[in-house]
Amino acid sequence: HCYNPEIQKMNDIDTCAVMFKYENGMLAMVDTSRDAAYGYDQRIEVFGEKGMLTAHNELTSTVELATTEGHLRPAAMYSFPQRYVQAYHSELTEFIELVRAGRGSEAHALEQVAMLRHPSVVRATLAAELSWKLKRTVQLAELDKLCAAGSSSSETDSPGNGPVKNMFGDSFRNYETSPRQESVAATYGLMHRNQTVEFVQEQQEKWLKFNKGEFTVMEVITMLDELVDDSDPDVDIPNSIHDFQTAERIREQWPGEEFDWFHLVGLLHDLGKVMALPKLAGKDALPQWAVVGDTFPVGCAPAEDAVVFPEAFHDNPDYKHPVFGTKNGMYKPGCGITKLMFSWGHDEYMYRMLKFNGCTIPEHGLNMIRLHSFYPWHDKGAYAQFESSEDAETKKWVKEKLKPYYACLWRRWYCPVISLWLVLV
């Protein structure tokens, strides 16, 4: 419910109660009100088979008046700055300690492990918000499907609230009015103007030698702390956090040990973006338009009704080529999606690198990495003229992906190091 008219104008609420039910039968209730007359209300009760756990509000004073008429207690803390002053102090202190310790320290490694819990917290919060908007119970197992359908499905709409939102409050894959619109449009404009057959061939010759350095998976993930994807309208966080979030989401949806390769795919899928880091690649670092974003086949006409920012293709040298500018281009119908030459980027590079190193992840898992950014195909159904009989299964797994545990997986599936064509500077 919303009691505060100013908050109500933002289509938000100020008071709610959330109930959680776990598979083992445990029940939890969270009550919160950020505009209660008696202070900032935030309480939790957890009921289990052998007992109960309760956390009450912190009060402004420990003084309590008791008379024959009863007990009079002080109000709750007013808001975050008062209630969580010690937490903010501890957070800032730990941040300073991490900076002093340095990236290679044990403290930093422990912080990376601690980050693994964050995606689960975010998912629980999102499920609670969806439950309010949909006016029904929401299972965590259905969360990805609801989010994916958020921008188009009427199921996730409720009067005054609108569709499911991303972390900026916008519909997912909003390429028209997102807060990151300027950088996203500029990145795709350069990509669609410059990704040609000749350019891709040059990059393949340059990057597929894999002879300039070796890094562990965790080292590469840490490097990606420095990268925020300029093609993504939904995410404004370091890519390393996105990698862990994706892997944890897949592990929750596919928990069996027989799918541990799938969990690993989620962790590895974006690591090829290190090609954009000047700190590591020096003068050979690529601009983001040659590394990130939705991919497409070069050597044939773009599917302009299925790609974002299609007008930029009109300035691409291949657009009016007598062969590359035609629908089928240099390919035969039915040749198979994996036979296409894709725009150069992190997907193709990571796929080739894993193959070069003899990674034993199943082929459909490797294809997830290679094709996960090929949205015009797996999301819009474009380029279907090139599909072979095997591509239906490939598409199924690619779409599934878009909906100290990892260390043992790296060893099991033979990913001890990642060989990169990088120069340390």
From TrEMBL:
Chain intervals for the UniProt region annotation (Disordered): 150-172
UniProt KW Oxidoreductase keyword: yes
GO CC term, one of those recorded: cytoplasm
Pathway this chain belongs to: Polyol metabolism; myo-inositol degradation into D-glucuronate; D-glucuronate from myo-inositol: step 1/1
GO biological process: inositol catabolic process
Enzyme class per UniProt: oxidoreductase
Cofactor(s) annotated in UniProt: Fe cation
Catalytic activity from the UniProt record: myo-inositol + O2 = D-glucuronate + H2O + H(+)
GO MF, one example: inositol oxygenase activity
The UniProt record lists the keyword Phosphoprotein: no
Broad class of the protein's primary localization: cytoplasm
EC number(s) reported in the record: 1.13.99.1
Comp. bias (Polar residues): 150-159
Record: residues binding substrate: 173, 229-231, 273, 293-294, 372-373
InterPro entries reported for this sequence: GFO_IDH_MocA-like_dom, Inositol_oxygenase
Family as reported in the entry's similarity comment: Belongs to the Gfo/Idh/MocA family.
Name of the molecule in the record: Inositol oxygenase
Organism lineage string: Eukaryota, Sar, Alveolata, Dinophyceae, Suessiales
Gene: MIOX
